[in-house]
Amino acid sequence: MALFAMLFPGQGVQYINMLSSFLQKEKLFQNTFKEASEHIGYNLLKLIREGPLNKINNSKYTQPIILTSSIAIYKLWKKCNGKNPLFMSGHSLGEYSALVCSNALKFSDALKIVALRGQYMEKVTLNRSCLVKAIIGLNKNIVKKICRKYTSNTVSIASINSDNQIIISGDKLDVYQASLDCKKNGAQFIFDINLNIPVHSYLMKPVAKKIKHILKNIEIKKPKIPVINNVDVKCENNSENIKKALIKQVYKTVRWKEIIDFIQSKNIFTMLEIGPNNILTNLNKKNINLISLNTSNKKYFLQAFKTIN
């Protein structure tokens, strides 16, 4: 039996016909998606089966879809008497999945928050073009220095995913220029991220205010399994502190590399990704100390279950 941490992905893992190997046979998955669809007033199951892709990629649908996917996989894990992790953590939106699975937040409340969160994020892009880029193979301090050139905060470090991968986001032209500067300064590779919203940038501050307003009326309890948050790399037990972290998370950097380091510092070297893809698993691949497992389909779910339990 392995000591392990559960990791929950954020936006960017969605695709048409995702979770098909689960949905064909697992009634639990169909029921979880039906429950979610009733809460947000839209047929999510039909959307992931048929698309269109541009609708799946619209944040007000993407965020509930990914949340629901993670919750359904976790429910199956528990139904099979899967072992509890020592820690949970979610990348961006995935923090809501972690809070639901740790019994700190009701699934119905999380759905309400993330549907509105996605909607508000989309509105930021109505009057401005935005861009998100991954910078590969450049020191984070150099990337920070380049972002600081944009004194109006139009370029931000959205996420430090690993030693080798940093995500920047913000205004389209400025992010593009910043990425050219990164290339000049030695970045090995730069590519676009499939997001049309300036995630975790200062442009998202108005969204944070709206999230604060929504969270006022939401009950959050002490997590039954510690959840490491994105902004402070801390496990909070207090409801108000958890809410503050979720508010700041909207426009602050996701400190993912530090989260993985924190887990390893607790002598945990097995990571299990609970979601419809393997993006977080791939981020860990270069770390020779880690065993990284995912649950993106039934085959991988069963392999992970066998390894851990």
User: What series of H and E elements makes up the topology?
Assistant: EHHHHHEHHEHEEHEHEHHEHEH
Structural class: alpha/beta
Kindly give the count of domains.
Answer: 2
Percentage beta strand: 5-15%
Strands ordered across the widest β-sheet: 7-2-1-8-9
Number of helices: 14
| Rg over alpha carbons | 18 Å
CA-CA gap between termini: 5 Å
Query: What is the molecular shape?
Result: globular
CATH-assigned homologous superfamily of the largest domain = Malonyl-Coenzyme A Acyl Carrier Protein, domain 2
The main sheet comes to: 5 strands, parallel
Indicate the mean pLDDT: 95
Name of the CATH first level of the largest domain: Alpha Beta
Looking at the overall shape, the CATH architecture of the largest domain is: 3-Layer(aba) Sandwich
Helix content: 40-55%
Low-confidence stretches: none
Protein name: Malonyl CoA-acyl carrier protein transacylase
Active site: 92, 200
Enzyme class: transferase
Pathway: Lipid metabolism; fatty acid biosynthesis
What would you say about this model in short?
This protein has helices spanning 20-23, 27-40, 44-50, 53-56, 59-79, 94-101, 107-124, 140-148, 172-184, 205-215, 239-249, 256-265, 279-283, 298-308, and strands at 5-8, 87-90, 130-136, 155-160, 165-171, 189-192, 227-228, 270-273, 291-294. With 309 residues, the protein is an alpha/beta fold. It has two domains: 5-124 and 202-308, Malonyl-Coenzyme A Acyl Carrier Protein, domain 2 (3-Layer(aba) Sandwich), CATH 3.40.366; 130-192, Alpha-Beta Plaits (2-Layer Sandwich).
